[in-house]
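step: validate -> pass
step: tokenize input -> pass
step: predict -> running
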Amino acid sequence: VQLVESGGGLVQAGGSLRLSCAASDPTFSSYSIGWFRQAPGKEREFVVFIGWRGIVTNYADSVKDRFTISRDNAKNTVYLQMNSLKPEDTSVYYCHLRTITGDYWGQGTPVTVSS
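step: predict -> pass
step: emit ->
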């Protein structure tokens, strides 16, 4: 399974971005998908995940009420709408898929929030 993130960029504090994670394999729709992020010099941290039907979600406290995850299984794509961005949200954002055959990560998309 290949995962490709897109949508990152440079934005001012308070702004918004929408990230996408597109999967090459239609079985993607059968699995939960997570977003993680890694800031320079820090460990990768959990941001949010969404269940396979798009009903169950779980957010890190640091992004709750600002970020919204959604998915379109017909397009094999998961989205991360990020609002009210803060400089501390600056990171490379990765999507993650865990299947019975292993863990899959995308290449990441960088997000930079200027103050």
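step: describe -> The mean pLDDT is 95.
step: cleanup -> pass
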